[in-house]
What we know:
The protein is an all-alpha fold. The chain has helices at 8-24, 29-34, 45-56, 69-100, 106-135, 142-161, 166-178, 182-193, 197-203, 206-225, 228-231, 233-236, 240-244, 248-268, 282-294, 344-372, 396-416, 418-425, 427-434, 437-444, 464-495, 502-534, 539-554, 571-579. The protein starts with 7 loop residues before the first helix and ends with a helix.
Amino acid sequence: xxxxxxxxxxxxxxxxxxxxxxxxxxxxxxxxxxxxxxxxxxxxxxxxxxxxxxxxxxxxxxxxxxxxxxxxxxxxxxxxxxxxxxxxxxxxxxxxxxxxxxxxxxxxxxxxxxxxxxxxxxxxxxxxxxxxxxxxxxxxxxxxxxxxxxxxxxxxxxxxxxxxxxxxxxxxxxxxxxxxxxxxxxxxxxxxxxxxxxxxxxxxxxxxxxxxxxxxxxxxxxxxxxxxxxxxxxxxxxxxxxxxxxxxxxxxxxxxxxxxxxxxxxxxxxxxxxxxxxxxxxxxxxxxxxxxxxxxxxxxxxxxxxxxxxxxxxxxxxxxxxxxxxxxxxxxxxxxxxxxxxxxxxxxxxxxxxxxxxxxxxxxxxxxxxxxxxxxxxxxxxxxxxxxxxxxxxxxxxxxxxxxxxxxxxxxxxxxxxxxxxxxxxxxxxxxxxxxxxxxxxxxxxxxxxxxxxxxxxxxxxxxxxxxxxxxxxxxxxxxxxxxxxxxxxxxxxxxxxxxxxxxxxxxxxxxxxxxxxxxxxxxxxxxxxxxxxxxxxxxxxxxxxxxxxxxxxxxxxxxxxxxxxxxxxxxxxxxxxxx
Length: 580
């Protein structure tokens, strides 16, 4: 008597079991790049899925065609929490520093703002490479490093919000930077989740896109919640602790977002480091157990990893249990020594990356200070086109709105313009072309302070002409950033000389970026204060334009690598096995 005349139950069960196992091992690079089991047709099984993947290679890449969207969503939402926190803080930084000592001049406050930014990035510089190495280690891993970074940032923002002096605030910003190596590790994880190059332009765009979302939300939160007792006296004027700590409220909200990110990573993100991806961590184990309990309409046997007999068949037929999860064999038999990482293309790529981080980091810091700097009195000497001073005098709420405009422009361009132009021009060519937007934007920025305002000086700048001019300048700067940031990330990723040091490569890039963003804002803040006091507020921005020009020149020495420039012994065997 045959076991069954209909093979579909076995076929369906095998697919379900294979699908469940695939979800728990979603960081397997070969399978991630080859097949998304969610797209395997129910009636066709694995063979039909493979043929479909082959046919889809000729189809245009869309956001919905990205593989393993669930893991990408968890990662990008967690990344969102950090730019949200940073931009929220910058919306009121000038005013919080002023509250520590109201006798300080505006030029001194500008210098302190630069030092505050440098404290965070300087601490990152000293530890980013260490976090990159830990993320490549079997004893650490990508997920653990991200959890530490998010938790450390949460502690940092709470301490910063309750600080009562400049030194206290500096200490907590330093702690936040030292514990945070997340950007490099998240970029590494994206490259391990999405391995096919045709998806990379969109996949690597996710992190810059979340930055722009944070730029929209963060400044609004910071601007609305900063000093609530002073801004909304009828609602919060009687609350003592809000009067004692006027800038604690936005930091408490920021800490809440970071806590949500920690929980999302712990329960929703799978490890992608190949040597330990076979280990199911506590968070994913809890998630799997809870999801099994809440699946309705399915019997307990459907959750079992053992095969059950087809109804109506003899019960003495022995069914084979599934294979237990075994430790994955490392794809690369050898790891590239650290001293061999720095090839010519790696050095050129890192130099260009650092130059861009220098002028972008300095601009991001100075922009908030420039918006908050009081408008120059009418009696101030002015001799155009170079001798003039003052800022826009905007309060935190207007600063938040101005930064939200920047974020909206950026995210719209990233969603609808970047993928099309990048697909036509290619990563390197589009990167080189749009780097030229930065020098122009930096030249124009200081002239916003002399645009005619509806309200006479020294009142804050307002009126339709001011906002149109501000949006034009921001549009130019954001255009450059929209194309340059994801392209630089792709180039750094593909410049890695060997896949075994990918996490280390991103750690080095973040370390150099942090060094640049330490030196740039610290020096820029000091020069801004000097220029403000000396009547040439635009000097530092025009200096940034010069750095951006050097960045344009350096970009012509960079080429796009393939992520495997150096071949070690045994690599050919691995590639042959993958091809077979």
